[in-house]
């Protein structure tokens, strides 16, 4: 093998390596863009929590794979009407008993999630599961739940409870809507 052939082989290997590295980084960038588009503000929340892009994206991938295993389904019109009435009643009780109204709203949202086909694990897992299909409003679910927890410790004002109802209503309306089970993309 002469020197020209050796130089040619080294050059080809270098080009293949450079193309491979570029392909790797472009693939990671595309994956990041897809996850940001799919999860919207939830992407940033998970990234902040995990501290590293690779770990955060791994968490979001696991969520999406777990969600793909669920048998989610639309509501019948009768079931939709029943949930709408239950929600109306929960809201109507707010003036007389805000604490009970928030508790009732939490129950209605959880029962609606279960009726749709979401597993009812602990709260953090439910929020993670719902974030795949509803990444924009999942923060409302977390905020409403947080206020309900503070209320159980006697640390929530009536204004806090009002905000909890608003948070729960946002997720409730999206879960009740006709767009389900087609996932809405988050807007970054």
Sum up the structure in keywords:
single chain; 188 residues; mainly alpha; 8 helices; 0% strand; elongated
Brief summary of the model shown:
With 188 residues, this protein is an all-alpha fold. The protein is 76% helix and 0% strand. It folds into 2 domains: 66 residues; 100 residues, no CATH class.
Overall residue-averaged pLDDT value: 88
Give a count of the beta strands, DSSP E runs of length 2 or more.
0
Quaternary assembly? single chain
SS summary, helix count = 8
Shape: elongated
Protein described:
The protein starts with a helix and ends in a 12-residue tail after the last helix. The protein is built from eight helices and no strands. It is mainly α. Helix content is 76%, strand content 0%. The protein folds into two domains: 3-68; 77-176, no CATH class. It has helices at 3-39, 41-50, 53-68, 77-92, 98-116, 123-133, 138-152, 158-176.
């Amino acid at each position: 093998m002469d020197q020209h052939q050796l130089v040619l082989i080294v050059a080809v290997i270098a080009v293949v390596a450079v193309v491979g590295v570029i392909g790797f980084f472009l693939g990671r960038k595309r994956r990041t863009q897809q996850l940001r588009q799919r999860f919207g503000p939830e992407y940033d929340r998970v990234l902040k929590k995990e501290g590293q892009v690779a770990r955060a994206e791994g968490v979001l991938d696991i969520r999406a794979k777990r969600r793909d295993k669920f048998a989610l389904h639309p509501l019948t019109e009768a079931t939709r009407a029943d949930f709408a009435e239950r929600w109306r009643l929960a809201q109507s009780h707010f003036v007389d008993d805000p604490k009970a109204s928030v508790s009732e709203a939490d129950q209605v949202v959880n029962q609606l999630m279960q009726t749709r086909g979401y597993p009812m694990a602990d709260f953090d897992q439910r929020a993670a599961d719902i974030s795949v299909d509803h990444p924009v409003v999942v923060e409302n679910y977390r905020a409403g739940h947080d206020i309900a927890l503070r209320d159980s410790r006697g640390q929530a004002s009536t204004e806090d409870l009002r905000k909890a109802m608003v948070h729960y209503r946002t997720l409730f309306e999206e879960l009740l809507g006709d767009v389900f089970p087609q996932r809405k993309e988050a807007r970054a």
